[in-house]
């Protein structure tokens, strides 16, 4: 991490000590905080991160790397109180509370922009490679939410809050965990993998999800993904879990994303789509949406009704000014074709994209685009798993939301620094051949 240029770019973002203000000079500067934040995210403990920074051998390597980038650090390694003092200055701790001063958002936005630049260098988010049939791995982003459970139990939380100590967090229901509830702090992340090589994954954004307001995880995710689409035209495909509903899918499809997301249980059930009475064959076709795809309701020989999946012929997108219109073309039972706009605006009632997806799972065809692409979302679960194994005790290590967010941001810094190191090793120039 001491050789990662993003660490030093973020150190420049943090304002230094103003001249004339009381207090000692900051011998270690603001670089110490960024290194401390990244190391804490890597090892999952403030105490352990401070111990690593204070090790003489580690500090020599850090000073050497920093001097090559114009940062002069003292010869004496920092103590733990130096690291905690740097963290408290950034958190602007006032008494027993750590209010959000906006600096964390500045750090996050700057880091997200630099991570996107790194993704380009690694071969991801390349523009001009949009495909609805075979989306490239490097153009497929994924996201997910993660709840870090509280470091205190219910009794300790009540006691600390009664004493005026800050203990943030609330109860979140994890849909992926069979609806179990967890008390803690929730965050969401967006990532990309340029290729299938191990340890090539890059985290592109990390955001805090408040318990109320901002639309929850899905609302925060849409904001992050729309920001990414506006900045990176190469982010064309998205894999997300069932947290996204119609209003979220509509905004993402309008922005140009080809979204792979399973429908909810209620929306996956059969719903009427339209009745075709003007077909060239002369018959009437009752079309339904089932599990995200178009099906035709037919009457069997026994008099019962069944929904038969229509063959998907084409998925296309037309760009109109700054918005995309997505269309599905299917074949009816009579052989005639029918075209539907997936993200059709609907002033009244549910949005069509809530029940009809751009791509839907096909149990009968393993080669279907959804079946091939949605598995890339496993990278998001991998990020969650690594986070849980990294944090000390598998829980939050800061009682405040802003403090824990810095830990999560540091984790993303550390993981991306590791990915960059491996990328540099793989792309190092080979030495010239030895002359005979």
Helix share, percent: 25-40%
In total, the number of domains comes to 3
Give me the CATH fold name of the largest domain: Nucleotidyltransferase, domain 5
Structural class designation: alpha+beta
Tally the helices: what do you get? 13
The CATH superfamily of the largest domain turns out to be Ribonuclease H-like superfamily/Ribonuclease H
Largest sheet: number of strands, sense, barrel closure: 6 strands, mixed
**Architecture of the largest domain, CATH level 2?**
2-Layer Sandwich
Fraction of residues in β-strands: 15-25%
Indicate the CATH class of the largest domain. Answer: Alpha Beta
For the secondary structure, the number of strands is: 13
Terminal CA distance reads: 40 Å
- Write the H/E string, N to C: HHHHHHEHEEEHEHEHEEEEEEEHHH
- Residue ranges: pLDDT <50 for 5 or more in a row? 93-98
Mean pLDDT: 89
* Gyration radius over CA: 26 Å
C-alpha geometry: elongated
Protein described:
- With 436 residues, this protein is an alpha+beta fold.
- It has 3 domains: 5-91, no CATH class; 130-262 and 374-407, Ribonuclease H-like superfamily/Ribonuclease H (Nucleotidyltransferase, domain 5, 2-Layer Sandwich); 266-360, no CATH class.
- It is 36% helix and 21% strand.
- Strands 1, 2, 3, 4, 5 and 6 form a 6-stranded mixed β-sheet that branches.
- Helix 9 (246-254) links the parallel strand 5 (237-239) and strand 6 (258-260).
- Helix 1 (5-13) packs across helix 2, helix 1 runs antiparallel to helix 6 and helix 2 packs across helix 5.
- The longest helix has 26 residues, at 401-426.
- The two termini are 40 Å apart.
């Amino acid at each position: 991490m001491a050789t990662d240029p993003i660490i030093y770019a973020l150190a420049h973002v943090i304002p230094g000590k103003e001249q004339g203000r009381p207090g000692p000079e900051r011998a270690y500067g603001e670089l110490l905080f960024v290194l401390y934040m990244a190391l804490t995210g890597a090892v999952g403990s403030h105490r352990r991160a401070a111990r690593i920074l204070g090790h003489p051998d580690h500090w020599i390597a850090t000073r050497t790397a920093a001097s090559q980038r114009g940062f002069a650090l003292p010869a004496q390694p920092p103590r733990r109180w130096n690291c905690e003092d740097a963290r408290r200055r950034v958190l602007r701790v006032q008494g027993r509370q750590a209010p959000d001063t906006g600096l964390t958002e500045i750090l996050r936005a700057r880091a997200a922009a630099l991570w996107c630049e790194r993704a380009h260098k690694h071969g991801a988010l390349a523009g001009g490679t949009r495909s609805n049939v075979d989306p490239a791995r490097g153009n497929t982003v994924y996201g997910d939410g993660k709840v870090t459970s509280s470091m205190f139990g219910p009794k300790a939380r009540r006691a600390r809050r009664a004493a005026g100590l800050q203990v943030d967090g609330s109860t979140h229901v994890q849909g992926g965990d069979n609806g179990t509830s967890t008390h803690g702090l929730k965050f969401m992340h967006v990532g990309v993998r340029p290729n299938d090589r191990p340890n090539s994954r890059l985290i592109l954004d990390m955001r805090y999800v408040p318990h109320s307001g901002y639309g929850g995880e899905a609302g925060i995710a849409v904001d992050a993904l729309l920001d990414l689409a506006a900045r990176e035209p190469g982010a064309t495909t998205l894999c997300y879990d069932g947290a996204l509903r119609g209003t979220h899918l509509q905004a993402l499809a309008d922005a140009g994303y080809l979204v792979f997301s399973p429908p909810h249980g209620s929306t996956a059930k059969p719903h009427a789509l339209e009745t075709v009475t003007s077909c060239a064959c002369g018959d009437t076709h009752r079309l339904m949406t089932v599990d995200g795809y178009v099906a035709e309701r037919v009457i069997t020989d026994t008099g019962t009704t069944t929904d038969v999946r229509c063959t998907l012929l084409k998925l296309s997108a037309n760009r109109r000014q700054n918005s995309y219109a997505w269309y599905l073309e299917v074949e009816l039972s009579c052989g005639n074709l029918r075209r539907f706009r997936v993200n059709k605006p609907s002033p009244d009632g549910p949005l069509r994209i809530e029940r009809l997806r751009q791509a839907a799972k096909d149990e009968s065809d393993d080669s279907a685009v959804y079946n091939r692409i949605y598995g890339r979302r496993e990278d998001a679960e991998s990020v969650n798993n690594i986070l849980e194994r990294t944090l000390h005790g598998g829980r939050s290590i800061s009682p405040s939301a802003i403090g824990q967010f810095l830990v999560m941001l540091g984790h993303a810094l550390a993981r991306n620094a590791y990915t960059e190191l491996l990328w540099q090793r793989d792309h190092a120039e080979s030495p010239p051949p030895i002359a005979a």
